[in-house]
Design brief:
Layout lengths: L1 H7 L6 E11 L8 E2 L5 E6 L4 E6 L5 E8 L2 E5 L4 E3 L2 E5 L6 E5 L6 E11 L6 E3 L6 E3 L1
Parallel strand pairs: 1-10
Antiparallel strand pairs: 1-2, 1-5, 3-4, 3-6, 6-9, 7-8, 8-10, 11-12
């Protein structure tokens, strides 16, 4: 009977996975001109903004943080990416870090995609997370 009780217990996961990608939109050949570069570093910080790990994107621009304790993290993307002497910035403003929470209910956070694009001449727009504030410079 003891084995029956052990088989019916629900096991709580202890570790989780964070997956995402980086895409660069050149718009040189139309709006679907997207590059995926390998070897772009993505950093994982804990809730106290202390370094936890780093991963680099693969040939498809994808990265994975596999087997991390269930808690809150911040995924930090590069502030900018230089490709062929052009500087690409995060689309939609200057935010390049995102809070992620791994929990027993959500052990996999997938689809964190960071889009980079060329700065439009004459206009800089910045957005603050959690705010409707909009700044034009």
């Amino acid at each position: 009977m003891e084995t029956d009780r052990v088989l019916t217990q629900v096991r709580t996961p202890f570790y989780g996975t964070i997956k995402g990608s980086i895409q660069i939109h050149r718009n040189k050949y139309g709006s679907d001109d997207v590059l995926t570069l390998c070897c772009i570093k993505v950093t994982l910080l804990d809730a106290d903004n202390q370094w936890v790990a780093e991963e680099c994107t693969d040939d498809n621009g994808d990265f994975t943080f596999l087997g991390f304790a269930l808690k809150t993290y911040t995924v930090v993307f590069p502030e900018s990416i230089t490709y062929q002497k052009q500087n690409f910035l995060p689309d939609g403003g200057f935010q390049h870090h995102f809070k992620i929470e791994l929990s027993p209910e959500k052990t996999i956070v997938d689809g964190i995609t960071m889009h980079y694009g060329l700065l439009q001449t004459g206009s800089v727009q910045g957005y603050t997370l959690g705010s409707d504030a909009h700044v034009n410079a």
